[in-house]
């Protein structure tokens, strides 16, 4: 009986040891698979961090370029605004000069008309005097 029980226990022990070895092999395989998955995820994280860094760098570069462009456009707008103000000032001055010249031309035309009228009247008077003097020597 003891021999049979011992034999039975040995067989059971061998079966359990075999199961334990199988379980350890499966556990080692799972651990290996997990380690491979962890390494793969680490590589993916590294790649994604690099992509993120590149995107961030590209965005910063783009923002810097946009800031420079905005500054350039702002400076250009300021310059154009100053030129516009100067042109408006010049236009106002030229309009004043034009008004002054128009007034001068109007006055000179009136004077010329008056002088022409006076000359015509003087001619008529001279002709009248000539006629009269022709009758009276």
Automatic annotation (TrEMBL):
It comes from the Eukaryota. The keyword Protease does not apply. Residues 13-97 form a coiled coil. Keywords: Coiled coil. InterPro entries: LEKR1. This is LEKR1 protein. It comes from Piaya cayana (Common squirrel cuckoo). The lineage of its organism: Eukaryota, Metazoa, Chordata, Craniata, Vertebrata. The gene is Lekr1.
